[in-house]
Amino acid sequence: MRSNITTALRALALGVCLALAGASAAMADPAYSEQKLGAFVEAAVQVRELSSVWQQRIVTAGSEAQAGELRNQAGQELVAAVESTDGITLAEYNQIVEDARKDPDLSARIGSMLQEREGD
After folding, report:
1. Is residue 30 part of a domain?
2. Residue 34 included in any domain
3. DSSP-derived secondary structure for 54-107
4. What's the distance, Cα to Cα, between the start and end of the chain in Å?
5. Residue 31 is assigned to a structural domain of this protein
6. What is the extent of the structural domain holding 9?
């Protein structure tokens, strides 16, 4: 469970970094279709929004025990958000996060898609 929470929070950080970096469009990465990355972006936006809400709750928790309980609830909700996104599994989501860390072109492609989505 802790690794799911950590992975979800890392994915959130990646999404925020990509959006803030203003990454330009790059050559298409043949490993991921537009549909797969579109589903990833949809899930990443949900994860980012939920993480923001949960982070505020955790920070204002009355005790470390309560904060731990809230972290567990947050992790479950973040995982559920990814799993409920059409077109992507949790394993695929995590793999794209890892691949984007290693591949600047993929990272730029995702960043461009995030900017485009947030511009809507």
Report:
1. no
2. no
3. HHHHHHT-SSHHHHHHHHHHHHHHHHHHHHTSTT--HHHHHHHHHHHHH-HHHH
4. 34
5. no
6. 2-21+42-118
Whether residue 37 lies inside any domain: the answer is: no
Is there a contact between 40 and 91 (Cβ–Cβ < 8 Å)? no
Using an 8 Å Cβ cutoff, are 91 and 11 in contact? no
Domain count, the chain: 1
pTM (2 d.p.): 0.73
> In one letter, which amino acid is 44?
A
Instruction: Please list, in sequence order, all residues whose beta carbon lies within 8 angstroms of the beta carbon of residue 94, skipping any fewer than 6 positions away.
Output: 7, 11
Tokens of 71: 């972290």
Q: Are 60 and 21 in contact (CB under 8 A)?
A: no
Tens of pLDDT, residue by residue over 8-62, are: 555 555 554 444 343 333 344 458 999 999 999 999 999 999 999 999 999 999 9
Cα–Cα distance between 99 and 31 in angstroms, integer? 10
